[in-house]
């Protein structure tokens, strides 16, 4: 762990989008695995885990995707770049998710069959609907990943500025998955840009507009 543990409130309040990182700092595979396992506790519709994540640490690979990300320097300076993918065919994970519950006596066979049918019906929807689901669910994982990183003392920045088609080609991403965002992470060498948050009264609508 990079520094002492923080309270949950501190993690939330201190997480900011950082763009300047200590070069050549490596995050161990063990710690990366622990961070991703924390992020993996994110919720998802039907618990289908609509995300996959490509972990990029190799300097050559980071240089290869740099122009695809419009030459944002954090891509090559950060310790790791995560490419978060959304699953357009998450229904294919339904059996792996729910069958163990049946085997453990936590779900009835009837409920299992109904869940599979409901999921199958939902995934007959047009591609645009499945894309929305992929973005929604994978974004929950992405946010949790950034919080998990911060809890271990690492800063991060979510990046939507990249050329998706070129990223798919460069990283050989199967058609089943779509890039949702890139997240660069590591040890900050400069603070995040100053930002504001709207007052609560400006964003909360009680009951209805």
- Quick check: average pLDDT? 95
- Continuous helix count: 9
SSE pattern: HHEHHEHHHEHEH
Give the full name of the CATH homologous superfamily of the domain at 8-88 and 131-190: NADH Oxidase
The radius of gyration over CA amounts to 19 Å
Spatial strand order of the main sheet? 1-2-4-3
In terms of structural class, how would the helical and strand content be classed?
alpha+beta
Helix amount, in percent?
40-55%
- CATH class value of the domain at 8-88 and 131-190: Alpha Beta
Can you summarize the main beta sheet? 4 strands, antiparallel
Question: Which terms would index this structure?
Answer:
alpha+beta; NADH Oxidase; four-stranded antiparallel beta sheet; 209 residues
TL;DR of this structure?
With 209 residues, the chain is of the alpha+beta class. It is built from 9 helices and 4 strands. A 4-stranded antiparallel sheet has the order 1-2-4-3.
How would you explain this protein's 3D organization?
The chain is of the alpha+beta class and 209 residues long. The protein has a domain at 8-88 and 131-190: NADH Oxidase (3-Layer(aba) Sandwich). The protein is 43% helix and 14% strand. It has 9 helices and 4 strands, in the order ααβααβαααβαβα. Strands 1-2-4-3 form a 4-stranded antiparallel sheet. The mean pLDDT is 95.
């Amino acid at each position: 762990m990079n520094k002492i543990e923080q309270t949950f409130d501190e993690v939330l309040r201190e997480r900011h989008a950082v763009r300047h990182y200590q070069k050549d700092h490596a995050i161990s595979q063990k710690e990366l695995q622990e961070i991703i396992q924390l992020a993996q506790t994110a919720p998802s519709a039907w618990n289908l885990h609509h995300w996959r994540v490509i972990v990029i640490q190799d300097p050559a690979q980071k240089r290869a995707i740099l122009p695809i990300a419009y030459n944002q320097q954090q891509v090559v300076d950060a310790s790791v770049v995560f490419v978060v993918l959304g699953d357009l065919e998450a229904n294919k994970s339904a059996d792996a998710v729910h069958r163990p519950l049946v085997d453990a006596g936590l779900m009835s066979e009837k409920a299992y069959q109904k869940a599979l049918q409901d999921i199958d019906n939902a995934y007959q929807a047009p591609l645009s609907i499945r894309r929305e689901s992929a973005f929604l669910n994978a974004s929950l994982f992405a946010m949790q990943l950034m919080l998990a990183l911060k809890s271990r003392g690492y800063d991060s920045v979510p990046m939507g500025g990249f050329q998706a088609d070129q990223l798919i080609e460069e990283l050989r991403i199967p058609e089943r998955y779509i890039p949702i965002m890139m997240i660069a992470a590591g040890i900050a060498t400069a603070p995040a840009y100053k930002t504001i948050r709207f007052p609560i009264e400006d964003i909360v609508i009680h009951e209805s507009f």
